[in-house]
Amino acid sequence: MLDLTAATILVAFAGVFLISLLRGAFGGGFAIIGIPLLSLVMDPVTAGGLLAPLFVATDLVALRYWKPSTWSRPDLLPLLPGLVVGIGLGYLLFTHLDHRAIAIVMAAVTLAFVGLWFVAGAQVTIRPRSTPKAVAAGLASGMTTMVAHSGGPPLAMYLLPLGLGKAVYAGTTSLFFTVGNATKALPWLLLAQPTAEAWTLMALCLPAIPAGVWLGWRLHGRLDQLQTYRAVYGLLVVTALKLLWDGVSGYLA
User: Where do the TM regions start and end (predicted)?
Assistant: First the structure.
């Protein structure tokens, strides 16, 4: 049961604002960083159901900034089918998957990916496109975004080595998660079934979205290419550590 206390409203508003700011600055994929805040005042499944419709609202605002000129169509073409299939698989297996093991494996792969980047001198290494890798990345992202709202790492591991311009990277990830969030909204609502209190809390959080996306977009404009990529890699570390904590603490509980 969700209680609409002042603390719940404040924490939820702050979490939605943070998610929106990251969406405006980097295009998407780091929603999990805001979820720990909501988990302070509600259980994770309730938080997932609350956030699913708000993600769609964030997408609509973000489209104002990340226009079609910032979308990498050659990459989205193979990524999106994998994403949709992955979300479907994630929904079908939601009650059977060991979320803890998935979180630990994804965290380990992400940390290894970032570690290799540091070993290479923290520079962008350009690699050619690969349709099989893109489909696999979309599939992995779809499953993890459905299970844990954490589809960012698989997508980033495919897109970052391509060396896309910072605006194209952000715009491509933004459209990718626009499709993903629209696809998973209904499954999450079926799984979580928000109460009247949850819908009221969603409405109260809506003003945080345009403010957060706008501020993030302004931040994006102040960062150069290398700074943007370094920030994304840094956020991947934070995401991976959060996933690792979720997985390990789940086994210890």
Answer: 37-63, 75-94, 100-120, 155-178, 198-217, 229-245
- Cα 181 off chain centre by: 9
pLDDT at 10: 93
Rounded-to-integer distance, Cα 67 and Cα 119, Å: 35
Residues of the chain with pLDDT under 50: none
- Looking at residue 253, what is its pLDDT? 65
Side-chain-side CA neighbours of residue 111 (13 Å): 12
Encode the chain in three state secondary structure. Answer: CCCCCHHHHHHHHHHHHHHHHHHHHHCCCCHHHCHHHHHCCCCHHHHHHHHHHHHHHHHHHHCCCCCHHHCCHHHHHHHHHHHHHHHHHHHHCCCCCCHHHHHHHHHHHHHHHHHHHHHCCCCCCCCCCCHHHHHHHHHHHHHHHHHHCCCHHHHHHHHHHHCCCHHHHHHHHHHHHHHHHHHHHHHHHHHHCCCHHHHHHHHHHCCHHHHHHHHHHHHHHHCCHHHHHHHHHHHHHHHHHHHHHHHHHHHHC
Q: Are 61 and 213 in contact (CB under 8 A)?
A: yes
For residue 95, the model assigns a pLDDT of: 67
CA 139 to chain centre: 14
Give me the pLDDT at residue 177, please. Answer: 92
Cα distance between residue 142 and residue 84, in whole Å:
6
Distance between CA atoms of residues 196 and 176, nearest Å: 30
What does each C-alpha distance from 97 to 86, 93, 94, 103, 212 come to in angstroms?
A: 13, 6, 6, 11, 33
What is the length of the chain? 253
